[in-house]
Structure formats: structure tokens, C-alpha cells
Design a protein that fits this description.
The chain is α/β, with parallel strands linked by helices. The chain folds into two domains: about 5-160, 2-Layer Sandwich (Beta Polymerase, domain 2); about 170-310, NAD(P)-binding Rossmann-like Domain (Rossmann fold), CATH 3.40.50. It has 17 helices and ten strands. It has helices at about 15-20, 25-35, 65-75, 80-90, 95-105, 120-135, 140-160, 170-180, 195-205, 220-230, 260-265, 290-295, 305-315, 320-345, 350-365, 365-370, 375-405, and strands spanning about 5-10, 40-50, 50-60, 90-95, 185-190, 210-215, 230-235, 245-250, 275-280, 295-300. The strands form two sheets. Strands 7-6-5-8-9-10 form a six-stranded parallel beta sheet. Helix 14 (about 320-345) packs across helix 17 (about 375-405). The termini are close together.
Length: about 400
């Protein structure tokens, strides 16, 4: 565990409005993260959500400010000096067992903008799988993620932290519902990911029927249109013609704005008509210039802070129980990690014992065994098989007992 470090940029330390600078779309993550290997980083997971960008790494280097600077420069080669300084000086960092504790708290949504939302667990699993696909993590991260998922599930099933959950989607929907009549609304949707799908499902449930959906992958837009009604288009065609809408829902993984003022003028039939915009993307899909120059009611993740704070107060009574579960899980992980280290260190034992048996039977005592009758050979084989199993299991059990009786670092 002495090699584990977590580097977190969140709504707490730099604000949601700054997080967009550090978001990396899935299609660019492999090229931006792989160079970290050259810095002496053995395994990593990159997590990006609407309220955090986090890098979990294993390295034999101390997480000094100099090393932290090199990491940010490697991942964000075009980052300006001011933003680099912001990241290095404001990032929350955790090392060793504290990094495990932090990671488990994240999985339990205790560090989220909205306490008690379950989406973070799926986002962490997806982040792990992406980096696994890029061959950026291995055995340690596999074990850690298994325990991470287990911890999150325990929190959500054994405490009341997620009772009557208020997710970012639900918070955004409440504000949207207060601003427009969804049954009569014409809704333009940009992006067909989980967030938009959840929001569309909620709107459909409450009477919305008129959806025009654009997405980078047309088949996903078509699937949404089939499931909830409406028309589907390729995102590259956005701006080619005017669209009648009074509600805009957008959440993509784009590194830059999807809707600037020129695009907005191309697609909006009447730019003087007020539009309710729900922009849950990080970075925002709708440019600041567009938001300021047209009659727009703008709903964003950053704008949901006050409601999220009230939500946290309602759940604060359950936090101590969550922290107890997490503390137990951290200790369990430390034991699991040491056990795994023993297994790795001694995985050659079975092969060596089997080789000793083979050599004894086929070489050293081959003639003596050949002289035995069939019953004697059968008994000998049973005795040797029994001894083989004992010689494999006993040293491992003894080694595990010795290590697990040591103080967990």
C-alpha cells in the first residue's frame, strides 16, 4: 500500500467551473494517460465525473510537489501555467492506506456533490474498466476495485444514506419542472449517455413526448428515440437546419463547447423565445457567451450546489454509520492485500512440489516403483498425492498467519 497515491480535483478544492479544464473524453484517455508509465507509474485509474477528476496511481515515488507537477504536465501537456499552478497547489492528495480510505469514501458518495447518489459507483467501475482496456492497471487495482464495489454496495444497502435519493439528475429535473410545462415542451437533446437517458426517462414519465435527439453515435440516439419517442440525428448534422425547441438538454463528453452563439443562432427558430437549458456536462456544452446573450434559464451542475448542500444536511445523521463501515472495509482490504502478496510470493511452491514428485517417480525411484504390484502403486500414489497437497498448503498457511499477525501498515 506504500505505493498507492490518489490525486483529486473536485468541487471542494477548485470548484465545478474549473473542472472542465481537466476533463478528458474517453476517446483521448489512452493517448493522454499512457505516457504516465514513463514517469514510473505502474498502475492507474482515471476517474472523471460532473464534480471530480481523480487519478489513482501506484508508483515507488513519493508524491512530492515536483512529481505532482510532472504528472499534470504529462496528462495535460497544453495546460497553461496558471491552471497548472491551480492544480498542483489545490489538488487533494492521499497516500498509502489513506488513499484506500479516500477511494472507499468516494465510492460511497460521501465526497460527492450529492450525498447518497449511487451513480458514482458505476462511474468508478467504468473508469477502472477503461484503464484496464488500455492495459494501465493490473492485479493490485483489480483487488482494490473489487473491494471498492463491495464497500459501496454495503453503504447503500446497510445504511439509510441513499434513502429517497436525490441525484444530480433529480435535482436538475426539479428545477426544470418548475420552469416549464414538459407536456407541451419541444425538447432538444444532445448526447445519449446515462445522464441524458435518466433525465429523458424522468421527463417521459411526467408527460414529455416531443424529443429531438442528436448524438455522436447515431445508433444510440436511435435507441433513445425508439424507447422514448422522437427523432434521432447524427451530432455532426447539428447546425445544418433550424429546430423548434424551448428546452435544451445536453450532456456530452466533449472537451469543448457543443453550443456556441453561432450554433445557437443556426438551430434556434426564434432566438428571442426563452429557452430552458439543462447542461450537466463537464466542461459545459453551452458557451458562456451563449448563456449571457440570449434569454436562457440555465441549469448546470454548479448551480445545483445549494440544493445539494440541503440534501447533505438531511443525510448527515447517517454519516457516522457509513464511516464505521468504511473503516472496517479499509482494514479488511489491508488484510486482503497482504494475503495476496503471500499468494504471489509463494505461487511457485505448487510447481516446485509437483516437480519434486515427478522427479522422484520418473527418475530417482522409477525402478523401485516399477517393481511394485498395482495395489502397492495405488497406495503409494495416494500417499504422495496427500503429501503433495500438504506441502503446498502448509507453507502458505504458515506464511499468511505470520504476515497477518503483523501490524497492518
Amino acid at each position: 500500500m506504500e505505493l498507492l497515491h490518489s490525486i483529486a480535483l473536485t468541487h471542494h478544492n477548485i470548484g465545478v467551473d474549473q473542472l472542465g479544464e481537466f476533463h478528458i473524453s474517453e476517446e483521448f484517455q489512452a493517448s493522454r494517460l499512457t505516457p504516465l508509465k514513463s514517469l514510473g507509474i505502474d498502475e492507474l485509474i482515471f476517474l472523471t465525473t460532473c464534480n471530480r477528476v481523480e487519478l489513482l496511481i501506484r508508483s515507488n515515488k513519493e508524491l512530492s510537489k515536483d512529481f505532482l507537477t510532472k504528472i499534470f504536465q504529462c496528462v495535460y501537456p497544453k495546460l497553461g501555467y496558471d491552471k497548472l499552478d491551480l492544480a498542483v497547489n489545490n489538488a487533494s492528495t492521499f497516500s498509502n492506506i489513506e488513499a484506500v480510505l479516500h477511494w472507499f469514501r468516494v465510492s460511497s458518495s460521501l465526497d460527492s456533490l450529492v450525498i447518497g447518489e449511487r451513480e458514482i459507483l458505476g462511474q468508478m467501475r467504468n473508469a477502472y474498466n477503461l484503464c484496464k482496456g488500455y492495459k494501465l492497471n493490473g492485479d493490485f487495482m483489480r483487488i482494490l476495485m473489487k473491494k471498492t464495489i463491495e464497500t459501496g454496495k454495503l453503504i447503500y444497502t446497510e445504511t439509510e444514506i441513499a434513502n429517497n435519493p436525490v441525484s444530480v439528475v433529480n435535482l436538475a429535473y426539479k428545477k426544470l419542472e418548475a420552469l416549464t410545462n414538459l407536456k407541451k415542451s419541444k425538447i432538444l437533446v444532445i448526447g445519449a449517455g446515462k445522464t441524458n437517458t435518466a433525465l429523458i426517462r424522468k421527463m417521459k414519465k411526467h408527460g414529455a413526448t416531443d424529443f429531438t435527439i442528436f448524438n455522436r453515435t447515431l445508433t444510440k440516439a436511435q435507441t433513445l428515440a425508439e424507447n422514448f419517442g422522437g427523432k434521432a440525428f447524427d451530432l455532426k448534422d447539428l447546425g445544418s437546419s433550424e429546430i423548434e425547441f424551448n428546452v435544451l438538454i445536453t450532456c456530452t463528453g466533449s472537451d469543448s463547447h457543443i453550443i456556441d452563439h453561432l450554433t445557437y443562432e443556426k438551430i434556434k427558430i426564434n432566438i428571442e423565445e426563452p429557452t430552458v437549458v439543462v447542461d450537466l456536462a463537464i466542461p459545459n456544452d453551452v458557451s458562456k457567451e451563449t448563456r449571457e446573450n440570449y434569454p436562457i434559464h440555465y441549469i448546470s451542475v454548479d448551480g445545483l450546489r445549494d440544493v445539494a448542500a440541503k440534501n447533505m444536511e438531511k443525510r448527515r445523521a447517517h454519516l457516522s454509520q457509513c464511516e464505521e463501515i468504511i473503516a472496517t472495509q479499509v482494514n479488511n482490504f489491508a488484510v486482503l492485500y497482504k494475503t495476496r502478496q503471500v499468494e504471489i510470493a509463494m505461487r511457485k511452491v505448487p510447481e516446485q512440489v509437483k516437480e519434486i514428485r515427478r522427479k522422484a517417480v520418473e527418475e530417482i525411484f522409477a525402478k523401485d516403483i516399477e517393481a511394485l504390484d498395482s495395489d502397492s502403486k495405488e497406495v503409494l500414489d495416494k500417499v504422495m498425492l496427500y503429501l503433495e497437497k500438504k506441502y503446498i498448503s502448509t507453507p502458505m498457511l504458515m506464511a499468511k498467519e505470520i504476515l497477518l499477525n503483523e501490524n497492518i501498515r
